[in-house]
Amino acid sequence: MCQKNLSSLVSNLLSKHKGYFVTATGTDVGKTFITALLVKKWRDSGIDAGYYKAALSGAELRDGKWIAGDADYVKRIAGLADTQEQLVSYVYKEAVSPHLAAQKEGCPVELSKVQADFNAACSRHEFIFAEGSGGIICPIRYDHHKIFLVDIMKELGLPLLIVTTAALGSINACVLTIEYARSRGLDIRGIIVNRYGCSGNFEMEDDNIRMMQDLTGLEILAKVKEGDKDLGVDTF
Questions:
Q1: What distances in angstroms separate CA 215 from CA 38, 135, 150, 174, 196, one per listed residue?
Q2: pTM attached to this predicted model
Q3: Distance between CA 25 and CA 27 in Å, rounded?
Q4: Could you give the residue ranges of the DSSP H alpha helices within 27-108?
Q5: What contacts 119, CB < 8 A, 6 or more positions away?
Q6: Among the options 31, 53, 75, 223, which is catalytic?
């Protein structure tokens, strides 16, 4: 377990990069929850961290207005003042893959807008956590122009943090995600395990975590339990 190394990793990273791209081994793994804790941790530590997401599908209707739920959650947990338009470039109503939502609702993703909005986020904040949509191969646009999440990752140029669980099947999902990212030339900085202990089988989960670390050669940066209010790493 390498939680204690997160402080030095971040200190070294600040002089080289503008942030991290947070992705996950699949949908509903909890990357928004983890991203919120990351942004909060950095801000609590005195670093002006912000948030950005290129595309969100499955917006929530509140008081007659469509709300980007993921961004709104991070904003509330981390205490961000940014508007929804500053946090998310494309918001779709239907809870389907962004490429299908765009086909049904219009306004497909343009990488030029994503890059411009990301640059604007970087100008407002010292450090940015960009959150992905679904898993790494999630189709973002699929018409005459095809964009996958990995294309956005490459466009933004941030190192990746991989969010996974330690549940049954997590070894396969985690290793495949990381190997695909590596095949596309992406830089991966570590793994964060979410919902640690939820299965009740700690022997299995701890072994899965060891296997994910051994098979990928990556550090496990944190193990986060359901409902945790903090990443459980040292303040830096």
A1: 25, 20, 22, 10, 19
A2: 0.90
A3: 7
A4: 31-44, 69-78, 84-87, 98-105
A5: none
A6: 53
CA dist 124 and 49 (Å) reads 9
Determine the Cα–Cα distance for residues 21 and 130; give it in Å rounded to an integer: 5
In the chain, what are the domains?
3-223 (3.40.50.300)
Query: What H or E segment, with its residue span, contains residue 10?
Result: helix 6-14
Query: From the CA atom positions of the chain, what is the Rg in Å?
Result: 17
Tens-of-pLDDT digits for all 236 residues of the chain? 444 445 444 444 443 448 999 999 998 899 999 999 999 999 999 999 999 999 999 999 998 899 999 999 999 999 999 999 999 999 999 999 999 999 999 999 999 999 999 999 999 999 999 999 999 999 999 999 999 999 999 999 999 999 999 999 999 999 999 999 999 999 999 999 999 999 999 999 999 999 999 999 999 999 999 999 998 775 32
Q: Which two tokens stand for residue 24?
A: 């996950």
**68, 56 in Cβ contact below 8 A?**
yes
Is the CB of residue 219 less than 8 Å from the CB of residue 5? yes
Residues 39 and 214: their CA atoms lie apart, in Å, by 28
Rounded to whole angstroms, how far apart are CA atoms 148 and 98? 10
Two tokens at 44?
Answer: 């609590």
* Catalytic status, residue 53: yes
